[in-house]
Amino acid sequence: MRFASVVLDIPTRALDAAFDYAVPDEVRAQAEGDGVGCSGGLIGCTVLVPFSHRQVVGYVVATFDEAPAGIDPARILPIARILASSAFDEPSARVARWIAREYSCPLCEAIRPFLAPGQTVKVRRADDSSPWELVCEKSGPVDERWVSLTESAADFEPRANASKQRAVLGALSQGTVRMAELSAMLPGCSATVAALQKRGVVSVERRRHVRGGEGTTLSSATASRPEHLTKGQVGALEAVAAACAAARGDVVVVDGVTGSGKTEVYLEAIERVRKSGKSALVLVPEISLTAQTVGRFRSRFGDDVAILHSRLSAGERFDQWDLARRGEAHVVVGARSALFAPLRDLGLVIIDEEHEASYKQDSAPRYHAREVAARIARERGCALVLGSATPSLESLERCRAKSWGGVSWTRACMPERPGSARLPKVRVVDMTEQFALGRKHMFSKPLADALQGVAERREKAVLLLNRRGFANFLMCRECGAVPECPHCSTSLTYHERTHTLVCHSCDRSWAIGTPGAPMRCPVCGSPYLGAYGIGTQQVETTLADELAGKGVTIVRMDADTTRGKGEHQRRLEEFDAAECAVLVGTQMIAKGLDFPQVTLVGVINADTTLKMPDFRAAERTYDLLEQVAGRAGRGERPGEVIIQTYWASHPAIQAVAAHDRDLFMSSELEERRDGNYPPYSRLANVLCWGRNESEVRRVLDGVASTLRARIEGRRGWEVLGPADCLKSRVKDRFRRHILVKAPVGEELGALLDACVREQDKPRGVNVAVDVDAYDMM
Ligand SMILES: Nc1ncnc2c1ncn2[C@@H]1O[C@H](COP(=O)(O)OP(=O)(O)OP(=O)(O)O)[C@@H](O)[C@H]1O
Ligand SMILES: [Zn+2]
Prior knowledge:
Residues about 210-215 have low confidence and may be disordered. This protein is α/β, with parallel strands linked by helices. The relative contact order is 0.08. α7 packs parallel to α8 and α20 (about 695-710) crosses α21. It folds into 6 domains: about 5-135, 3-Layer(aba) Sandwich (GIY-YIG endonuclease); about 145-205; about 230-415, P-loop containing nucleotide triphosphate hydrolases (Rossmann fold, 3-Layer(aba) Sandwich); about 425-470 and about 535-675, P-loop containing nucleotide triphosphate hydrolases (Rossmann fold, 3-Layer(aba) Sandwich), CATH 3.40.50; about 475-530, no CATH class; about 680-770, CATH 3.30.70.600. Helices cover about 30% and strands about 25% of the residues. Zinc ion binds next to loops. One of its GO terms (molecular function) is helicase activity. Its EC number is 5.6.2.4. Belongs to the helicase family. PriA subfamily. This is Replication restart protein PriA. It is an enzyme of class 5 (isomerase).
């Protein structure tokens, strides 16, 4: 290990390569002596290196003994020092390289997700004349050592002059104290504690502080082992075992209907992997990382589980991450970014609800967790399990082809719920018919009746308000104006309770009138300003009227009511504890929740998402409806689902009504094939934004013409645009984009990267390449 290849943390596309440095003896000794590092050496370390007359932070991605060919070893500059222990090993470095190429981003940006949370080091200077300085956003490990007296403390008498010992014993006489607090009370006491520990008078215990699993009253937050696995579960486990045995990154799509017991398959599969001494990684959507999910894993694997998600503080995230790095936890359950956790000896990766759009990161590196997971599985020779009741069309297509990317893709079906639970009966209510019958209420007659039934039978219901799309804005009935944010091209959303108009692009808000006073149109001054679309608050109010005096608890869950820490869980607990209740909410209540007492699911407006300008609109609507329908009838009592819609004939809605995915698939796949959309092509979005509109236009026109010249004559390639984005202005920046379609299997990222690099970009104009884009607004 005399030389190292270092990627500099300078995210410009031109400085993307790794540079070679010499490894001085003391640096090597430090790296090899470091017990906590991931690679057992220098790879994965954050280092300080000289570069072009200054010092720069970089990451070691490879080491070698011979000087690189053609370079005089004496002229290779040395690494100045190590700034942080190794956070990744060689296979991870290879995955990072792949991410950079695949998603067209600078290599250092692809490496950053692998670094220890909260331990990023930067070289900065205040202005051009001041010196460079190291800024270390360190959140070291949280001290979780707890000190307490042992039984033999009673017989221990400190010597007369041992005042420090007396102080420590005194402080501990009331009970266990955290080491950090003890040090704060008695500065410099750690040597004393160590001495007392040696004598057996005090004990120091490392208690893991792990949030998320503890302190919930949710009945479903434990996973008791079922007596028998279902046939579907046994089959799925066999497929997973085969993929583990193949040890080359094979993929199993666990295609199990809602409530079929996919979680039990994950738990069982992890148990087997653990028995063979390997570790496992489980990804769930951020929003499902609730006490319920965490509790289920914790109840089976206890302290062997580390939890990673964005609601943890930086220190807590570091702690959890470090448990994996030190090999103290062998199961990591987390949101998208947990994919980069430094687990040793990985044997299995699981992605739950794999169809979820939130697995695509919408800032650089713009990776899709499913694709990176597949890459990691191949790199480490472990199995990948993708679970969902509504697998993505991409995954289903790969299973149909049986292999993809050099590994096998298998589908394991679980068509039934365990025990006596059955899939609920679904009824579609055509709202145009209701209107023709003279019913203008938010709840159709069948839904209103069903809610009364729930109240009478003392059961529970879930009501979904489909809020994606353009619901809930105000429109002037005289001039037709819709108030928009002056900084973004976004219709403002009306919030009834606070009487404000809110921009969901930039979070600015405007008060309108005073409660009770009429609101006026900002354009023509007319008082006839009406709310279009409905909000959850309105549903809650209407519901309260409908069920007044019936003793039904109404719990509302949306972005507003779950903002505070722990609110999400608190509301679910409230719903769980109530004797008879209705849970009203947005998308966030649609998936994962397992409450056996729910017998009715109502969807107030099924079709708002169908009208979104997005080729995945139908798929998303189908997924959402099938998932939310799946909340009903998970226990012994049968469930019923009522879907209100103005578009009853749409295949997505028909398919949910019949629990027949093929109904939806056949029409959808045909449209995708006709339009050359994924899964039959790859799609990238090249986005350009800046304050100066003409510069934005010029830059993107340049990218488009370079691109068109390059793909000239190549089959299956298509360049659409440039055109204004649907959100053509956000935070006063103009936004235009190009959509690029390419045949499946083409390296789209590398080509787009080259075209963007070629373009001269003035300051203030930004270009982002989003490969396999999900959000094209
Ligand atoms: N073999 C079994 N026998 C009896 N009950 C089981 C069995 N397997 C799972 N269950 C129970 O079935 C319920 C549903 O399981 P789970 O929540 O894992 O479903 P799921 O497939 O993840 O559904 P969804 O996609 O809706 O989230 C749970 O309460 C679970 O304890
Ligand atoms: Zn705005």
